[in-house]
Amino acid sequence: MGLFDKLKAGLAKTREVLTMDLDDLILGKKVLDQSLFDELEELLITADMGPQFTHDLIDDVQQRVKRKELQDASQIKNVLQQRMIAILKQIERPLVIPKNQPFVIMAIGVNGSGKTTTIGKLSNLLRNDGHDVLLVAADTFRAAAIEQLEVWGKRVSVPVIKQKMNADPAAVVFDAIGKIKAGFKGVVIVDTAGRLHTRTNLMEELKKVKRVISRELPGAPHEILLVLDATTGQNAVMQAKMFKEDIGVTGIVLTKLDGTSKGGVVVRIAGELGLPVRFIGVGEGLDDLRTFDSKDFTAALLD
Q1: How far is residue 169's CA from residue 175's CA, in Å, rounded to a whole number?
Q2: How far is it, in rounded angstroms, from Cα 44 to Cα 257?
Q3: What are the beta bridge partners of residue 291?
Q4: Which residue ranges of the chain lie beneath pLDDT 50?
Q5: DSSP code per residue over 178-210
Q6: pLDDT for position 63
Q7: Which of 14, 53, 111, 123 keeps 20 to 30 A from 45, CA to CA?
Q8: Rounded to an integer, what distance in angstroms lies between the CA atom of residue 172 and that of residue 161?
Q9: Are residues 158 and 197 in contact, defined by beta-carbon separation less than 8 angstroms?
Q10: Spatial distance between the Cα atoms of 189 and 276, rounded to a whole number of angstroms
Q11: pLDDT score, position 6
């Protein structure tokens, strides 16, 4: 199966809600009337495109109808496609990692978002691209988190720096930066905790880890990558806002797109947050983390 077919298969559930329902909606509709717009609105909201995008799209369609640029309901799909590509183009900024110099990625996100799995797949991607990779188990609150990272480390042949459970995450990070000072010139990916008792606790913990990285290696972390679970739809947007405000996110990975009909949430993230989507996860396999491409993404949903 080619890369595009894989993407299309991964986005099947969202595609079903969006394309099939859209086709059903506009099939044989000759009149572009209010009831059509109401149904279109419901459809886009269901796919988690978000109220703003939905409102703007319907407004655009209505204006075009007034100017007699749209005669037929079937043309609505083209308008939707154009608008999606335009908005997603703005967040299509692949992560550029220089070779032979240290690059620190701090991976953040709530537990269950697929953070550790994403780190494993990203390590594989980077290794295949010729980077040395070092993983850092700074989620010391869950024994399972350290073990899971070690499993991924073995699977993709990447060393893992860790301490015992409940150790200070900042201390683990300090050890890792020590490796860079001793001459490591690859990518260091720091796995962090995603669930402490309160939001304040979690954010303070992450800020501390970020401070230690910056202090020990000025200019780092070079990327703060927020991992979001697409199946949570608008919750993912709320999480992104929270982490962006408190920690400062530089890029997003949207996981589990294959398990949801809410893939439209990427449009909402683009419109409401303007953060680059670096990667998307469209399956369980090692190679199912891929660089986000707005054209391919839109085509996989609508063509």
Answers
A1: 10
A2: 17
A3: 279
A4: none
A5: HHHHTT--SEEEEE-----SSHHHHHHHHHHHH
A6: 93
A7: 111
A8: 7
A9: no
A10: 19
A11: 85
